[in-house]
Every structure is written in C-alpha cells, then in structure tokens.
UniProtKB/TrEMBL annotation:
Top-rank taxon: Bacteria
Single Gene Ontology BP annotation: phosphorelay signal transduction system
Pfam families for the chain: Response_reg
Modified positions (4-aspartylphosphate) in chain numbering: D55
Keyword annotations from UniProtKB, A to Z: Phosphoprotein
Domain Response regulatory as annotated: residue spans: 5-120
Family matches, as InterPro entries: Bact_response_regulator, CheY-like_superfamily, Sig_transdc_resp-reg_receiver
Protein name (record): Response regulator
Record-linked SMART domains: REC
Amino acid sequence: MNAINILVVEDEALVAAMIKEALSKTKYSVRAVAFNKASAEKYLATEPIDAALLDINLEGNFEGIEIGRLIRDHHHIPFLYITAHADDQTLHNAKLTQPSGYIVKPFTERDLLAGLEIALYNFHQRQSPLFRFDINQSTSQGTSI
C-alpha cells in the first residue's frame, strides 16, 4: 500500500516536527511542511497531497481557515484543523469551511492518529456513490437522518 501523503501547515517548527515524527511511524507520509499560507498554497499546487493538517493561527493570523476554504473550493482532499483555539467564533468560522476534523492542542500522538484515521474514512465514505444516493433518497422521501 502506498503511503498517504500529508501536508502539514504549522508555523511552530517543534509542533510540525512532532507531527512529522508521529506520522512517520504509520502509513502516513508527511509530503511537505508549510509554515505560512503562501508555502501551503505552493505545495497544494505542486505536490501530490492526499490530506492536510492545518493550524488555524499562522503567524498571529487566522490564515489556516483561509487555507481550509481554498482546499474546500479548489482541491478535493480531506483536511483537519489542529489548533489551540476552540472558542465559539473560531469554531463557527472553521465549521463553515467543512473540515473533516478538528483537533485541539495540546494533543497526544493517539489523538492525532485517531482523528486523522476517522477523518479520512468519513471523507471517503461521503464520496462514494452509494452514500450520495442514500442521502438523496432520504431527503427526497422526507426521512430524517
């Protein structure tokens, strides 16, 4: 099985290194680490990325949410936010980008791997024709899910 290529967008080098180390022991491969929005956009355009882990607060700005919006609108890959911010406004803004997951710092290696695994599974399940058919049929019949 080929490794799943992950883009890590994190402005704290130590946190990025810890994520890379944790993922290196698994089926995941950190394809690139971006420390800001510009480098994240470059990697998304030039590297084969299967999923992304995004810090929300990059260099004092909430650029991670902008990257999430970019991924949602122009790239067909799952992404998770990894952030210390869990206030109502940040959650609201993040939710609007439809992430596949949200992990609050500090987190354990197990939190990271479980969050990523569930997010990837759910993202791909939602892409299957059967899932789309079931959702459409349920809503057309007025059935709640």
